[in-house]
Specification:
By secondary structure, the chain is of the alpha/beta class. Helices cover about 35% and strands about 20% of the residues. The chain has 2 domains: about 240 residues, Rossmann fold; about 35 residues, no CATH class.
């Protein structure tokens, strides 16, 4: 329990919980140059992650071993000597972490709620980006508002981001879902104001509502930036227990007969089909989708995913 039991651990998150994630922000990377072949961010998965990008440095005489694609044909034709264009890697690749703390995230059947896992993943990512020397900021998307922390290369900036996440997380017990399209439109506008070109944008959500607006928004920002999606899900969203149970919210209740095999199968098929269709749409734009559950430790899952296990 946290804060004298007011906010039960794993149902809600604390700032101390998120600060502990700094210790686990090692053994993985989101940079293209550090991906293993089997990683979902590289190799056969055809990721388009561009690393930190390249800055033009100079034109010099061609040296055996230079990539033929770097030859400057205009200078070569003018001087009658082969010249190569030299590039250096940019010093940074700013990152923006968009983390969902809306009402659909306030669910967990066994270990943690999706909102807690999303918060841990956001903290893990923020600390990792900072360790690699890049600016990092974030947007916390909630039903009752949006918080913006502009990218900076500053640990205090991450602390402000984590504090916003904790605040929105603890408000979940009292908030009510709002009109999704309206909230999404507002979030889109905020992201577009921050993300310009060659950003790394990591969106953490349950993507519970696979609306065309969501797909359109994600693919639009992926045109000039690298986008990674992290879907947080609870096993009960995919598998109905083999038992009779009552599910409900603050207004309605529903009796579910999980002992019916046909119902369990149909429930799983709907979840799997919708998720596969979403991933297929993202794959067309070479946007990787990571899948993280509420059962296993968040850092362990991310390291296994990025190592291709």
């Amino acid at each position: 329990m946290t804060e004298s039991g007011k906010y039960p651990k794993n149902i809600f998150v604390s700032l101390n919980d998120l600060l502990k994630m700094e210790h686990f922000s090692r053994g993985f990377s989101f940079l293209a140059s550090k991906q293993k072949v089997r990683s979902i961010l590289g190799g056969k998965h055809a990721s388009k992650l561009r690393g930190r990008g390249l800055d033009f440095e100079e034109v010099r005489n061609y040296v055996p071993g230079d990539d033929i694609r770097s030859i400057d044909w205009k200078v070569t034709a003018r001087t009658q000597k082969t010249h190569s264009r030299v590039y250096s890697e940019e010093k940074e690749k700013p990152a923006l972490i968009v983390v969902d703390q809306s009402k659909s995230m306030f669910f967990g059947s066994r270990n943690k709620t999706k909102s807690v896992v999303a918060a841990e993943l956001a903290a893990l990512t923020a600390f990792k980006v900072l360790k690699e020397g890049d600016r990092v900021g974030g947007i916390v998307f909630a039903d009752n508002g949006i918080d913006i922390i502009y990218p900076k290369r500053d640990r205090k900036n991450i602390l402000r981001f984590l504090e916003k996440i904790v605040t929105r997380n603890r408000e979940l017990i009292n908030t009510k879902p709002v009109e999704f399209e309206k909230a999404l439109t507002e979030t889109m506008a905020k992201v577009k104001n921050i993300v310009t070109h060659d950003f790394l944008v990591i969106i953490i959500s349950d993507f519970f509502r696979y609306r065309p607006e969501v797909v359109k928004f994600i693919t639009r920002i992926s045109r000039h930036n690298d986008v990674i999606l992290a879907k947080v899900y609870d096993p009960m969203e995919q598998f109905i227990p083999d038992a009779k149970l009552v599910a409900g919210n603050q207004e309605e209740q529903l009796l579910i007969d999980g002992q019916k095999a046909a119902l369990r199968k149909e429930f799983k098929n709907v979840f799997d089909n919708e998720f596969e269709q979403f991933k297929a749409k993202m794959k067309k734009h070479r946007i990787p989708v990571l899948s993280v559950d509420t059962i296993k430790e968040t850092d362990v899952q991310i390291k296994e995913i990025l190592k291709g296990k």
